[in-house]
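Following up on my earlier thread - several people asked me to post the actual chain instead of describing it. Fair enough. Here it is, all 110 residues.
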Amino acid sequence: MASFKQNRAAEDMKREIYDIMRSLKDPRITGLLSIVKLDLSADYSLARVYISSIEGMEQTKSAVAGLNSAAGYVRREINHRMKLRRSPEIKFIADDSIAQSAEISRILRG
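Reply from S.P.:
Thanks for posting it. Predicted structure:
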């Protein structure tokens, strides 16, 4: 079970990653990207960031490839902004939950 401190750190990290994502200049990182979930390990050594895009899974995979290539920069920025004792290794993972929820909403509307 995650502690309050770990949950707060995960939410702070999520907010900072959103800000860093907006400043990246990689052409693969475009469109409406959303962080669906951020899993932070108990010892702060690994952060799994689940990314989704409204444009579909192909756009999400392209954006995740760009984000994974910039993971070192993101890790350094997180360490500078949050003043962590140990900066976590960041892995970006493609997730299609936004597209699935849009499809379910379309089906329910009839």
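The domain at 4-109 is CATH 3.30.300.20 (GMP Synthetase; Chain A, domain 3). That should answer part of your original question.
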